[in-house]
Every structure is written in C-alpha cells, then in structure tokens.
Amino acid sequence: MSEKPRHPPVTQFPVRDDHLMIAGRTVHELADEIGSTPFFVYDGPAIAKRVNQLRSILPEAISIHYAVKANPYPALVKDLCNRVDGLDVASAGELRLALNTSIDPTAISFAGPGKQDHELELAIQNRVLLNVESQGELQRIANIGEQLGIRPRVSSRINPDFELKSAGMKMGGRSTPFGLDSEQVPDFLAAVKDMDVEFSGLHVFNGSQNLHPDQIAAAQRATFELAVKLAPAFPAPMKTFNIGGGLGIPYFPGDKPLDLQPIADNLSQLLIEYSDLVDGVEVILELGRYLVGEAGIYVCKIIDKKVSRGKTWLIVNGGMHHHLAASGNLGQLIRKNYPVVNPDRIDRGPREHVYIAGPLCTPLDILASNLDIGTANPGDYIAVLQSGAYAQTASPQAFLSHEPAIEVYLPTDSAEATT
Ligand SMILES: *Cc1c(COP(=O)(O)O)cnc(C)c1O
C-alpha cells in the first residue's frame, strides 16, 4: 500500500492506492454509508489537528475563537467548542446555536451591522459580548440593558484605517457598514463612559483569506498600534482585544499553504513590545475558514457525460445551489477552479480535460472548467476539496428547488477509532 501525503493543494487528506481517504474511508465507502449524493463530509479529526497545530505554534497567551458563519453545522460547532476559547456569532440564529454548546456564554461575542433589538436582548440576557457597530447601536444596547436590569458588555468594533486584502496590506481605510471608523472611536468611548454599560475592549477585523504572512503580521502590528493610540480614551481597563483573523487556505493552483511561523513570531514580539497594553488582557484571534475549510469535501455523482462542440462535459447532481463558492459566484472576479478531483483516480490511469456542470438551468452552475481529471463516467463521483467553509450555508439552496446536500460530521472520537 503506497501512501501519498497530499495532492496539491490538498493538505488534510491522504491518498492511498490512488483513492482519496477521509477518516480511513474512500469516497465510495462514504457514499455507501451515507446512502445518497450529493453530500458534504466534515472531518472532525482534521479540524482537531488544525487547532492543535495552531496552538503548538502560537504564543500561549493568544486565545482562539471560531467564527461560526464559516460553518454552522451544529455537530461540528459543538465538537469544536472542546478545542477553542470562544465563539463569534453574527445573528440570533448563530447565537442560539452557540448558547447550545459547552462554551461559556461570556466567551461568545456578537458582531454584525443591523443587530435587531430582539437579537440584542438575547445577547444581553446571556451576558454575551456585543461588538458594537455604531453610536446608534450603543444607545439601543444601553436602553435594552436598562429595561432588562442587566449591564450589557460592549466592545468597540473598529473599521481601521488600514486593510488586509488578498492583494496586500492597504493603508487608508474605506467607507463600510462595519464598525466605527477609527477616528470616531474616541467619541464612542466617551459615550460608553457615560452609559450604564461594561467596557470590554476592542474588536478589529481587517480582512479575510490572506496567504501572505508578512502582510498578516503587518496588519497585526498596525492593530496593536491603533489600540495604543486609543488607550487614553478607554473608559475602563481593557479586558478583551480581538485582533481579527485573516488567515487563508490554499484554494487555487499556485496557492501555497500559509506559513504560520512568521505570524507566531510577530505575535510573540508584539505581546512583549506592547505588554503595557495587553497585560491582563485576553488577546483573541478569530478564525473561520482556517480552522474548518480544509477539513470538508463536497461529493457529487456524475449523471451524464457528453461532448459539446469539442468539449467534454460531466453533468453532476450537485452544484452552485450547494456550493456557490466552488461555482465561482461567491465574490470571485475571475472564475478559477476549486480543487476538484475524481476521488478514485487521483494520479494514475487515463486522464481527460473536462467541464463539470451541475443540474441547474443556468450557465452559472459550473463546478470546473477545462479541468484535468482522472477519467470519470456516469455513476462515478467527483469531489470538491477545501469545502469545509462558506459552502452549503453560503449558497442559494432554494434556487431551482433541488434538495439540500446531506451534511455529515465525523466526530473526533469515533472517527479516530476507525482510522
Ligand atoms: C467572517 C468573519 C470572520 C471569519 O473570517 P474567515 O475568513 O473565515 O477566517 C471573522 N471575524 C469576523 C468579524 C467576520 O465577519
């Protein structure tokens, strides 16, 4: 039996005898167990491994929070709660899910513009930390707290004057619906002082899906510098300092897995340099896709195979209604293929160039174009890797009225037993 550790950019799953292996099973075996396609499988042990790797390399003082919107599948969130220090939510629905886990409600934070009064009430009743997005929201929070007779816990969510984009670190912020512009924060903190609310700290989220350690490090440094500038305006000592996330995963040809060491080194340095600022403060990294994205696959079955004007098309039974991002319609400017494979013919045997389309009657429903793949036929499976984050719940499931995909979570304990 030959074992290959990875098929780029697959980083979480081994390949054995040319089959992709998930928790010791081939996709065929998984499909037989699950009973129908399409499905998502989320591999708990792969997520646990990812968290352990992070913990082993990051300074011990850094807390890790999970941003639930990346993947709110309840069994996954519940299991992950045994490994992270807190959860970040962005709606009452996510908050109810978080309150239904083992996480202490005071380790839950709630961000998002447009929080409604009923959502604020639920958060305040449960002592959840509110990342406040505006002066108006602060006023509503104070009013609701007064009605409930509970002192709300608040943090200032900041729209910084720098930005971490996949293209690089940009200085000079932009206008957004998220948070308070950094220049508005001193006035906001003065208002916090005057109201019957408990000041917790700052929340700075400056970007997502970045694969450049130097840029992430620069953004983290700028975040600490911003906090130092604002510190004289703090109405009480800071308790929590949420420095955002931004850690990316490789999706496309040429993407390289993020090197964590320089990020960890930089954070260690910042904790020393800014010890006056962060002494006794919980410094939090909030991560979504970095924790779960690589641990999920999406599997469809090939229904038809045909040639149109010289191009070979595989028509599969899943597509953009389950996985908008893989179809290229979730924010990509130029469509690029996700890593899509024939899970039973990874490297060996005949190959072909194909286009893969889902069943929806729209030309947007494409899972791969001009893809080199191990030859596959109707009845075979295709697997979309890197599908553990922003997949089913970030997709237009009702479009064309197909069934949702089945979701399966392989928990850390039982899956370990089967590998
Ligand atoms: C979406 C989001 C995250 C998670 O982003 P990832 O790219 O999945 O790590 C973290 N924090 C906030 C405030 C978010 O909105």
Structure explained in plain terms:
There is one protein chain. The chain is an alpha/beta fold. Helix content is 28%, strand content 26%. The chain has twelve helices and 23 strands. It binds pyridoxal-5'-phosphate. Pyridoxal-5'-phosphate (PLP) is lined by residues 67, 69-70, 88, 111, 205, 208-209, 245, 286-290, 389. Pyridoxal-5'-phosphate (PLP) binds at residues 67, 69-70, 88, 111, 205, 208-209, 245, 286-290, 389.
Produce the secondary structure layout.
Elements: E1 3-4, E2 15-16, E3 19-22, E4 25-26, H1 27-34, E5 39-43, H2 44-57, E6 62-67, H3 74-80, E7 86-89, H4 92-99, E8 108-110, H5 117-125, E9 129-132, H6 135-148, E10 153-159, E11 162-165, E12 168-171, E13 180-181, H7 185-194, E14 198-204, H8 213-230, E15 240-242, H9 260-273, H10 275-278, E16 282-287, H11 289-292, E17 296-308, E18 311-316, E19 340-341, E20 351-357, E21 366-374, E22 381-384, E23 406-410, H12 412-418
Helix pairs in contact: 2-12, 5-6, 8-9
Bound molecules: pyridoxal-5'-phosphate.
Pyridoxal-5'-phosphate binds near residues 111, 245, 286 and 287.
